[in-house]
Design brief:
CATH architecture: 3-Layer(aba) Sandwich
Number of domains: 1
CATH superfamily: Alpha/Beta hydrolase fold, catalytic domain
Number of helices: 11
Strand order of the largest sheet: 1-2-12-11-10-9-7-8-6-5
Largest sheet: 10 strands, mixed
Strand content: 15-25%
Structural class: alpha/beta
CATH class: Alpha Beta
Distance between the termini: 42 Å
Number of strands: 12
Helix content: 25-40%
Radius of gyration: 19 Å
Length: 293
């Protein structure tokens, strides 16, 4: 039997290598509280869904102080034990960011890029947006992942270069990680720029556009060519970015390729910030993990 020991060790190491950085479906965290309240309609085998959103229920009843402090059951602040305010020195400048979870050896990395007037603090606020940022923090910490909420200079090429440098650094620290970028509002300009870059377009594994904008240049990007999954979350009464234009862009993606991994979740009666509050992080990321290039 002794001669079989090296073979057994080699087999173990092989499967350990395959498993390193490989992320299984994310384990639940308060799924019953954060589940979509109801589906009004669905098309394209679930690719397009209209969710029943109601302000009285989904803000007033969910928050202790509406839009400022979620009810206690939606939040677990113990995750702050693995949260750090950090700074990374790069050729694109010093990048202040908050990291939650494993800064090395993570199996999954999620970034949130804020919109106009925001900062790195928005994406780690435990109590605003109904506790939804607290949920993604806990999902990453509980699944061997890393969550990043950075500052950046602008929504143009400089900001994109900074986020690309941040992604590059943590990708080196966690070479097996799947990388997903969520962009709120104007932050979506950076999502599209990251998809268009050779480095990040060839590295990211999913984009989440939350109450955000569209960009026709996506069709010629490395991200589109790799079939990077895209989720659009949008309120039907968004006064900043009209829902009809974002829906049209989503449908133009499917027109290019009927099997492209894109989803649209329309929150009926929701406004500009509704998708940040209501998007199901776990359901979305598990879908993206199953479709990642």
């Amino acid at each position: 039997m002794a001669f079989r020991l090296p073979l057994l060790i080699a087999t173990f190491l092989l499967f350990s290598g395959l498993a390193h950085g490989q992320t299984l479906p994310l384990k639940p965290f308060k799924d019953d509280l954060f589940a979509y309240p109801g589906t009004l309609s669905s098309e394209n085998n679930g690719a397009y869904t209209v969710v029943d959103y109601r302000e009285l229920r989904d803000i007033n009843a969910r928050d202790k102080v509406p839009e400022r402090r979620a009810q206690a059951q939606y939040v677990d602040t113990g995750v702050r034990n693995v949260q750090r305010d950090l700074s990374l020195k790069t050729d694109a400048g010093n990048i202040r960011h908050v990291g939650v979870g494993r800064t090395q050896g993570a199996g999954i990395i999620v970034l949130y890029l804020h919109g106009q007037g925001g900062s790195r603090k928005q994406g780690v606020d435990d109590f605003t947006f109904g506790g939804n940022f607290n949920r993604i923090k806990n999902l990453m910490a509980g699944n061997g992942g890393l969550y990043l909420s950075p500052d950046f200079s602008d929504f143009g090429d400089t900001g994109a270069a900074q986020i690309a440098a941040l992604i590059g650094h943590y990708a080196q620290q966690s070479p097996g990680a799947k990388i997903f970028v969520a962009c709120g509002s104007m932050g979506g300009a950076l999502c599209w720029k990251l998809a268009a870059r050779k480095d990040t377009g060839g590295r990211i594994d999913g984009l989440l556009l939350l109450g955000s904008l569209w960009d026709e240049s996506f069709f010629s990007s490395p991200g589109f060519k790799r079939r990077v999954p895209v989720l659009f979350g949008h309120g039907s009464k968004d006064p900043v970015f009209p829902v009809a234009k974002q829906e049209a862009f989503f449908r133009s993606i499917l027109a290019k390729s009927k099997t492209y991994p894109a989803r649209f979740v329309r929150f009926e009666t929701g406004t500009h910030g509704t998708p940040i509050r209501m998007t199901d992080w776990r359901g979305t990321l598990n879908w993206m993990l199953s479709k990642a290039p």
